[in-house]
Amino acid sequence: MSSDLDVFVGNTTLIDEEVYRLWLDGHSVAEAVARRLRGGVLEREGTSVAVLQSDTRDHYRTFQMLERLLHAPPRLLQQLLFQIPPERQALLIQRYWENWEHWGAAHTEVPGGLGGTGNTGRDWEHWGGCSYSGTGGTGGTGRDWEGLGGTGR
């Protein structure tokens, strides 16, 4: 006698928008934790400082792994490793590329051949049904990865 069993396992990648903004703004994990503490997250969430530190560090690791995909948005939209809903992917990409101008990368080439060869303009192609606008760039942000065992991006 044989039985069929179907199993589905899901693992949606959780993204805290506040922590993402702190990461994009170049804050270290320690600075991000301090800002979150000042913002009253312990009272809102009913958690401890140790859990907040761990959560922030985990988010920063996730963002570090996502960054190579954020450099080429079509890769993020097509990848299967991170289970991120399409609307959240669009938000991550949009906010990531909005920061390029702030990082001083406004005059570098758009990565991945997006928007045409050598395009440095703001009118980008539609990616995966989503429209984005921002300034392209290549290279890392130059932020230090304190406490993550990394040497920068």
From TrEMBL:
Skewed-composition ranges (Gly residues): 134-153
Gene Ontology terms for molecular function: fibroblast growth factor binding
Any one cellular-component term (Gene Ontology): nucleus
Superkingdom: Eukaryota
Pfam families named among the record's database cross-references: FIBP
Region entry Disordered, spans: 131-153
Record InterPro entries: FIBP
A GO biological-process term: platelet aggregation
Record protein name field: Acidic fibroblast growth factor intracellular binding protein
Naturally occurring in which organism (per UniProt): Taeniopygia guttata (Zebra finch)
